[in-house]
Amino acid sequence: MAVYLDNAATTKPFPEVVDAVVKSMTHTYANPSSLHRAGLDAQLVMDEARKTIADALGCEPGCILFTSGATESSNLALRGAAAAYGKRRPHIVTSAVEHASVRSTVDALESQGFRVTRIRPNENGEFDAADFIDAVGEDTCLISMMMAENETGRILPVQKVFRIIKKRFPEVITHCDAVQAFMKLPVRVNDLHADLISISAHKIHGPKGVGALYVRRGVRLIPLVTGGKQEKSIRPGTEALPLIAGFGAAVKCMQPTIAQRYEKAEALKHFLLDRLHEIKDIHINSSEQGSSYIVNFSVKGIRSEIMLHFLESKGIYVSSGSACSKGAKSGVLAAYGVSDDHADSALRISFSCETTEEDLIALTDAVAQGQAQLIHK
Known about the structure:
Blueprint: E1 3-4, H1 15-26, H2 37-57, E2 64-67, H3 70-85, E3 91-95, H4 100-111, E4 115-119, H5 129-135, E5 140-146, H6 158-168, E6 173-177, H7 189-192, E7 196-200, E8 211-215, H8 241-254, H9 258-277, E9 282-284, E10 294-299, H10 304-313, E11 316-317, H11 331-335, H12 340-344, E12 346-350, H13 357-374
Parallel strand pairs: 1-11, 3-4, 3-5, 5-6, 6-7
Antiparallel strand pairs: 2-8, 7-8, 9-10, 10-12
Helix pairs in contact: 1-8, 2-8, 3-4, 5-6, 9-13, 10-13
């Protein structure tokens, strides 16, 4: 039986999610915008999912916009806010370790004339909240920070930064990529002081192809596309109702057990770290204080893809970094001061509620076996 340890890339959908998707496709398949009874039934399914997600975030349902995923959510947040507020305040602050959906979008905005400040971690690999706060000024329109970094699991000081910035510069728009935190860590809009939050379904045992963007009431976004009245005309187009229904089902399954699942993940993380410390020439790239769902480590002398495929041959599936990077060299690890040698041999292990100690024993045994067989090749 396969050992799947790449849950930060995607997760296996819950049976309840599959049932919700199938039911929507076979029963409530009408267009939610249609005025007849079948359309109303479809609309009610979407309303229920929207309310479930809103309740989990601690906001009104009307603040949730459905998208095709977190990449679109972050693009809509950043490009939409920059277009709405950036003409007189053309400055953006972000971290140097953002997911590609934020990093590349900020790069594109920079090429269009925005001034961008990218905050890097200190020599200990941690972020100082003061660095973000001090970078914001009267000409800043937007700050974007992820909550849980997706390659190493390090936690950024989003709550402290946004709280202080909103006191000093209430007009600055705050955006958080909460993809690796939602349904794992407490993510509540008022606690985060966030105007915009990106989340995704397939990271929480929901279907691929659907995400959401929380938009605080009163925040203006210029749409990326035009054409209809759906999602308040900010994200027009017929909604992917089966996927939205599955998204709602995933949140409904996970919401009641966030604390218990985190405790389990924390125990698994310490179990894995203890076993890794017993193997020679292992370098841990994650932080003890980071998310308990992600562990990043390097195996000295063995390139990531070589060890990844060796583990695959043993039925163990891990990642060499962000799935969106398609194996490209990690700029995130470099930002943390990880050497090129360690970055070239880095592996990311990410847990789900189905991960067991037996899975991690199989992993570490296979890593040690891989060292013995691959180190001289």
